[in-house]
UniProtKB/TrEMBL annotation:
Protein name: Alpha/beta fold hydrolase
Residue span(s) of domain AB hydrolase-1: 19-123
Domain of life per record: Bacteria
The organism's taxonomic lineage, starting at the top: Bacteria, Bacillati, Actinomycetota, Actinomycetes, Pseudonocardiales
GO molecular function, one term: hydrolase activity
Keywords tagged on the record: Hydrolase
Keyword Acyltransferase: no
Hydrolase recorded as keyword: yes
Length: 242
């Protein structure tokens, strides 16, 4: 796997008003699905901001994952650091993207000015997945009895299941630890009021000095596609859209 993941860049369409904005999508989604250009890159370009939309491994536009060892959290975040570059950036992550952005903010090769973490769970769901059952299921075997494994399996089966389950295994080998690498930059947490996946996000907010929590309308998917979340992100980043 290359040192950096593929990205889609959109340059500012007016004089630059702030650092580039790095956008990191969620699990079993895609950059195009989570960050449609007409709602994110285009208005940010009109506000004087470049965007760097990352295509995560195992997902549309990203590299295939041949083995879990390729995609431990450390290796994924190192690759994200290469995507971000050495100049100052703002970072916006949603769901899995937020979990990775949490670690990216403290990476020694990245200078993050502001951080947005949306739909983030304080738990590490991948570590509880029965990968044997999941892999059997996507190859035509019985559906997993465990609800979490069943949900992850269904998500993986809708895409490149082998790559996605390798990604699950790789990330699970280094579970999310909110007590390590706490972001020390201005941080905005966002969660849908009906998003059970972000239940307990207040625990994470309390760990980050000066962080803010904004609850918006919607469940896990509904919050991300809603106007309220987008406007909150633009306001926090100081990107006055036109």
């Amino acid at each position: 796997m290359t040192s950096a993941f593929p990205v889609t860049r959109t340059l500012s369409s007016r004089p630059v008003t702030g650092p580039p904005v790095v956008l990191i999508h969620g699990f079993a989604s895609s950059a195009a699905c989570d960050w449609p250009a007409e709602y994110w890159a285009d208005p940010l370009a009109a506000a004087g901001r470049e965007t760097v939309v990352v295509h995560l491994p195992g997902h549309p536009g990203g590299p295939k994952v041949g083995a879990a060892a390729e995609v431990t959290a450390t290796r994924v975040v190192d690759a994200l650091a290469e995507c971000a570059g050495a100049a100052e950036v703002d970072v916006v992550g949603y769901s899995l993207g937020a979990r990775l952005a949490w670690d990216l903010a403290s990476h020694p090769k990245v200078s993050v000015r502001r951080l947005v973490l949306g739909g983030l769970s304080p738990q590490e769901p991948f570590a509880a997945v029965d990968l044997v059952a999941a892999r059997q299921a996507v190859q035509g075997g019985p559906s997993p009895d465990d609800p979490l494994t069943g949900a992850i399996t269904a998500m993986a089966a809708a895409g490149d299941s082998a790559s996605l389950l390798n990604l699950v295994e790789g990330l699970a080998s280094e579970p999310f630890d909110p007590g390590a690498g706490v972001p020390l930059v201005p941080t905005l947490f966002l969660a849908g009021r009906q998003d059970f996946m972000a239940h307990g996000i207040e625990q994470l907010v309390a760990r980050v000095p000066g962080a803010r929590l904004r609850q918006v309308a919607g469940d896990h998917r509904g919050a991300l596609v809603g106007v309220e979340l987008r406007e909150a992100v633009f306001d926090f980043l100081g990107a006055e859209t036109v």
